[in-house]
Amino acid sequence: MRRVILTLHLVAALAAGAFVAVLGVTGSIMAFEPEIDHVVHRQLWHVTPHGPARTLAELADAASKSQDGQRPTGFLLSTAPDRAYQVLFRGRSVFVDQYSGTVLGVRASGPDFLSRVHQLHLRLLIQNESDSGKSIVKWASVALVFLLASGLYLWWPIRRATIRSPRGTRRWWFDLHNAVGIWSFVFVGLATLTGLAIGFDDQLVPWIYTVTRSAPALMYARPPRFTIVPSGPPIGPDRAVAIARAALPGASPISVPIPAATGVYAISARYPEDLTPGGRSRVYIDQYSGSVLVAEGSRTAPAGSRLITLNRALHTGDVFGIPSKIVMSIASLAVVLQLVSGVVMWLRKPDAAR
């Protein structure tokens, strides 16, 4: 039985190894995706807090002048006082110092390095109607689950967790494979299982809501539709943000799209304790009357929605902030090291691993 499991372990690693390696490398980068972006583009993001922030109308006016008078399509508000606001236009975003109104720079909406890494992790950069890239990724995750289970089975009789052999020898690679595998097992397993849940979300999400006897939150359901009849002047984004703050006390608005003439303000917000940077709260506001049509905060979200949010936060390492991000990033790199050491052992055909 041990030889059969070993053979299956090798076959699974060789078949899915390249895809698993991609997931490991990109996952280690994605754990710090916002932090990397803030460092690489510091001239866009960093501001020095001084006094109250200017109104969104003032920021929109400053950004619009830099864009030949074009009309903004929305705003992205930072929750950190030293991070700049963004005024959105079609195809680009303008970074603005919310304290001085100074335009810091412009970023095109097209893909950059980090967004490509993100899409490589999610679907191998394959964009088609069948979403075949996502299918490959989720089945590679299934293979990784088998590799973890079979690897633990193969390790158990030996139970070696240290590297004792001379460096570079066959035995050294064998010790490295065992040590890295067992010390990272829990965290790699956590990343793999939570990623698997994301990959099979079409099948898993309905089951979660059934088991928890809850209904999807607005963030996970189709956005509600409202029939809005223009009646007088719109309230404007600043008034809409104030209404959203009052509707969800303690939550900070982070996204304020400017609605069409018959649309509504759909403002996303984030509580300080939210586990993901995007938050999971939403307020829909009539842009003419200012009445709140729907307000749903993550603090009162259905049980199923909370479970889904927790799964994503565990997968990305957001659950405990920087410490958990470091752990998940290292775990992702451990997967790559496992594959490298496994391939070296396979090429050298070490008797010790049989």
Account of the 3D structure:
- This protein is an alpha+beta fold and 354 residues long.
- Helix content is 51%, strand content 12%.
- The chain has an 8-stranded antiparallel β-sheet with strand order 4-3-2-1-5-6-7-8.
- Helix 1 runs antiparallel to helix 5, helix 1 (2-30) crosses helix 6 (132-155) and helix 8 packs across helix 11.
- The longest helix is centred in the N-terminal third of the chain and has 29 residues, at 2-30.
- The model is unreliable at 350-354 (pLDDT under 50).
* Rg calc: 24 Å
Let me know the average pLDDT.
93
Tally of individual helices: 12
The helix-strand sequence is HHHHEEEEHHHHHHEEEEHH
Low-confidence segments, ≥5 residues, pLDDT <50?
A: 350-354
Total DSSP E strands: 8
Q: How helix-rich are the residues, as a percent range?
A: 40-55%
Q: Describe the main β-sheet briefly.
A: 8 strands, antiparallel
Summing up helix and strand content along with how strands pair, one would put the structural category as alpha+beta
Instruction: Specify the overall morphology.
Output: elongated
Strand order of the largest sheet: 4-3-2-1-5-6-7-8
Strand composition percent: 5-15%
Distance between the termini: 12 Å
